Amino acid sequence: MFEFLQRGLPIKRWGTKWSLWPVHLVTACCGVELAHAYACGYDAERLGSLNYGICRQTNLIIVEGAITRKMARVLKMTWEQMPNPKFVVVMGACGIKGGIFWNSYHMVRPWEVVPVQYFIPGCPPTPEALLNAIVSLQKKIDGKEEVCRFEKFEIENVEGKVRRCPPLRKFVVENPAVVPNVERERDEFADFLEEVLNTKVYTIGEKTFYAFVDDLKSSAKSLKDTGFDHVKCVNVIDVPHEDEFVVEFTISSYSKFRDVLVTIAKRVDREDPKVDSLIEIFPSSDYMEREMHEFFGVEFVGNPWMGRNFLLDESTPKYPLRKDFKIEQESLLEERKFLQDFDDNPPEVPEDLVRDALSRDEFVLVVGPQHPGSGHMRLIVKLEGDVIREVIPDPGYVHRGVEKIAENRLYIQNIPLVERPCITDFANYDLCYVRAIENALKIDVPERAKFIRTILAELCRIGTHLYDAGILAVFLGHTTGFMWAFGLREFVCEALAMMTGARVTGSFIVPGGIRRDVSDETLRKVKRLISSMRERIGKFEKVFVKNPTVVARLRDVGVLDRDRAIELGLVGPFLRASNVEFDLRSVKKYEAYDEVDWDVVVGEEGDSYARLLVRVEEVNQSMRIVEQLIERVPKGEIRCDLWCLSDVVLPLGEHVSMVEGSRGTIYMSIVSDGESNVPYRFRMVTPCWYILKGFMEACKGYRLADLQAIYGSFGYFPPEADR
Amino acid sequence: MLDVPIAQGLIEFVARIPILNILVERDVFAVLIAPGLVSLLTFLGFIVWFERKITARIQWRIGPKEVSPYLGGILQVLADMIRYLYQEVIVHRDAHKKYFIQLPILSIIPVLLALTLVPAGKVYAFRSEFAIPSMVALISLIPLFVIAIGWSANNRFAFVGLIRESFMCIAYEIPLLISVLSMLVIYQSGDAITVVEKQTIPGALINPLAFLTFLISTVMATGRLPFDIPEADQEIAFGPYVEYSGIMFGLVMVLAYEKLYLLSLLMVVLFFSGWKGFYIATLGDLSPVLTLLLKALIVMCVIVVTRAVYARYRIDQALKIGWSFLLGLAFSSLILSVVMVWLS
């Protein structure tokens, strides 16, 4: 009789049930599938659920997977700002027990921060699973909760082939030898570099050189004078048993020596690690130096950001990537507390960053992480009137510590891990990692596997470019552009699902080939899907790319000219939009790219519109490549033996690999001690991490409304940048 | 008393009930039922649903449906409204509390006052030479409330939003006023009934320039894309409305739609010959009311489609359009009107 007193009036329940509006709080990579669920493929608006921007006006939080220490503060704050009644749904395995990142140093479980109504398992869960969660939540509000009951069920043993898992035993050597500069197949170019650097230069791989130098600054300067123009990677290798850090700067060039990587390294004492910063010579090394400072405590003298957190939360253990900081090892019984040293204070704007702005009557606006026009990052925008003076990035809200986790897993187990930073672009990440292993072990890949790997990589490129275009559209307020782009992405997801079995995160590429053969019938279906995409992409161009309002918003906005783009170390389509013809696919000709006919797309203006157009044209080129590859795919074996791959040990030294991902260069380097079957140090620099500096510089001098246009035009995807 | 031949029995029955009998008086009916309060609320519900549905169709999807599968999900708006009604209203610590709570409620006043001035045939509350000018004046009060709302929220995004709103409202208000003025010059009256009676051909054909100015100004004034600038959600998080929750947000969110309803009615009166058109004798007094509402509905439906087609302009681009193209168009429409009056 008094039921309504306890559970509210029936009409209140009815209204709440049919109006579950999730707040726009994108926390990690499951957001891709969330976007699919709310886009035209699945259309969660049917259920009365409308994705809405502001926490004050919504009543549902969908936690998309991994919650880091930094993001946990935001989650708590968002939840507290929401009016009652409010609900929380957690997507993904990361939100339940940590998933693939369960032993990371930067992860928190969302159910320890806010009360959760519903969990969706999966990594990532499909959009159907999310819709099911919303329906189940509606039933729960109605009081008709569905309870899963487990029954004991006997399965008959079927006679036949016995399938066993390969033995995944870790073997870690204590106090191993760490020699990154192992000479292999000496290149003549090394002699030239020896003249430039006045020191011994080793060839550690194809067109990859390594040298220990005494003075990093002067060596970098002489390299710059020779024609090298940007830093590809800053890496630190911790060698505690020799009481030293090896600090490496990997330098490359877009103009003169196009496919050469030169690493200059220096050994520093572990007690007081200090090296010179290279930001005056190569501004592109700035953010990577900050990152290494945070991970290892190495001080880069000259970088103004030292002594401050960039990616990591304050509560994170200090210097987590040092070897003496151990993360938990695999054990099924172990139960850990995530929140031992976590306080739930909301994130604050560091006062010293904005002090001068306040004194100069500038307006400071904090955009993100819970903001309809930002992803999972915070931008501190200093405004003078409507004009942006400076943007200070605050990334790391999705930093899940891939590098540290990778040091604790077998080489083969790292394949699913390395693709998690950008699940839409999984094939390129897998390819980069797998190629490092293949080059180290000199494994030949059969032709058919090469073709299929290239098809996967190009499909991912189409998918990622469409994703970025959709996000750009929604940032400009053009919802139709968003919906159509995601509708087109459904084709790509369908093709990937047919080939690999997963819409995103295929983990399909393994050292020596691919996991399973893909039948010719499937490839023909993929080709049909691609040809049916063509016409719809034309429509999409008409309604979004050539829309006068879109052109007005993007043209002459966020201009980075050629020299500036090179100096800031931009990569991929964003570099090519600034009139630099550099594409690793054509420079290195890896996999099956030399077998097909395609063009490198180059833009001229370097503005936001050029960045959009380059990617639109690249989608067309990628479709061309896929169609040609499917026609020419040779018959043959795809060699793959997971059993023997489970115990791979890489030879001693550093193994570097680069591929052209969809947003640009993906750089991975594996330092192996030659004995353990886990990497000694795994370093991964993603395209978005390269782009970040350019993105921040491009915003200066434009208007507040342009921030979103520039953000979208760079396709900045925070999980990819934060790793 | 209303004269509706088909439902005369019902009207006479209502007229005998002591308090309800005022409802069937023409002037009270005009203010409270149609084209007044009740039709305003109905239209609000309908247009929000229609907007979501038509946008969904353009975007290759279905839109709200499961809440009432056989009615095309039209109950969705009701569900959202009920949810807002029962949600907690948060007044945050930094707000100017009195104004923060009062302003959304007060903002309905100019809308309701303007509604009393809209006639439909013989169903009207006032007949005045200043009906249309006063209506325009009341409509231009609404941005003032939006600005005050943004100020009372005391939030950085709300502040940016109110600045944008105040820039925008001057940019569209002047062309809007001039286009109305140029029509009034032609009709030589400010009385809505006289204006409609004088339109032998629709006003949009008499002075197309004024119509175009009025249409673009309406799109700007009601915050439709591509001029969704003051409450641009991806840029400044709904600007002035960022801190409102629960039913308070419901009140401020419908403000733009209320304005859209008023401006559509005004547009029909000025440019589409008001309630003229078809006349059904059995409906009596209700026939012009329905004609007026139907025309207004069509206008509203056309305007909401822009959401699915355009991206958002930047504030400086929108101001440029307002102060150069739109203002030029407005003045040329005025000149056209003056010339026409002078020639005739």
CATH architecture of the largest domain in chain A: Orthogonal Bundle
Q: Quaternary status of these chains?
A: heterodimer
Uncertain spans of chain B, ≥5 residues at pLDDT below 50? none
* Major sheet size, sense and barrel closure of chain A: 5 strands, mixed
Put simply, the count of helices of chain B is 17
Helix content of chain A: 25-40%
Radius of gyration of chain A: 25 Å
**Shape summary of chain A:** globular
User: How big a fraction of the residues of chain B is strand?
Assistant: under 5%
Shape of chain B: globular
| First-to-last CA distance of chain A | 54 Å
Largest sheet of chain B: none
**Can you tell me the number of structural domains of chain B?**
1
Mean pLDDT of chain A: 83
Distance between the termini of chain B: 40 Å
Tag the structure with descriptive keywords.
heterodimer, A: alpha+beta, Rossmann fold, Beta Polymerase, domain 2, Cytochrome-c3 Hydrogenase, chain B, 3 domains, 5-stranded mixed sheet, 3-stranded parallel sheet, 24 helices, 20 strands, 38% helix, B: 344 residues, 17 helices, 66% helix
How would you portray this structure in words?
The complex is a heterodimer of chains A (723) and B (344). Chain A is α+β, with helices and mostly antiparallel strands. In chain A, 38% of the residues lie in helices and 15% in strands. Chain A folds into three domains: 3-141, Rossmann fold (3-Layer(aba) Sandwich); 189-301, Beta Polymerase, domain 2 (2-Layer Sandwich), CATH 3.30.460; 402-717, Orthogonal Bundle (Cytochrome-c3 Hydrogenase, chain B). With 344 residues, chain B is an all-alpha fold. Chain B has one domain (33-343). In chain B, 66% of the residues lie in helices and 0% in strands. Chain B has helices at 8-16, 26-32, 37-58, 76-86, 97-106, 108-115, 131-139, 142-153, 156-187, 192-198, 203-206, 208-221, 233-236, 246-271, 286-304, 306-309, 315-343. Chain B is globular, with a radius of gyration of 21 Å. In chain B, 52% of the residues are buried. Chains A and B meet through α2, β13, α13, α14 and α16 of A and α3, α4, α9, α13 and α16 of B.
